[in-house]
């Protein structure tokens, strides 16, 4: 029988100006946290975003 390991999902939300904070937070996290991160960012639909970069 396989052992099932729980995966924690962490939701992080912020405004369009939170891009640097997202980067700082994720850069400080170890690669093997065992967590999945979902980032939700409020953005103006007509504004150009650097989020993909």
Structure description:
By secondary structure, the protein is an alpha+beta fold. The protein has a domain at 8-41. It is built from one helix and two strands. Helix 1 (19-28) links the parallel strand 1 (8-14) and strand 2 (35-41).
Number of strands: 2
Cα-based radius of gyration, to the nearest Å: 15 Å
Strand content: 25-35%
Which structural class matches the secondary elements?
Answer: alpha+beta
Question: Keywords, please?
Answer:
two-stranded parallel sheet; single chain; 53 residues
Brief synopsis:
With 53 residues, this protein is an alpha+beta fold. The protein has a domain at 8-41. It contains one helix and two strands, in the order βαβ.
Outline the fold blueprint.
Blueprint: E1 8-14, H1 19-28, E2 35-41
Parallel strand pairs: 1-2
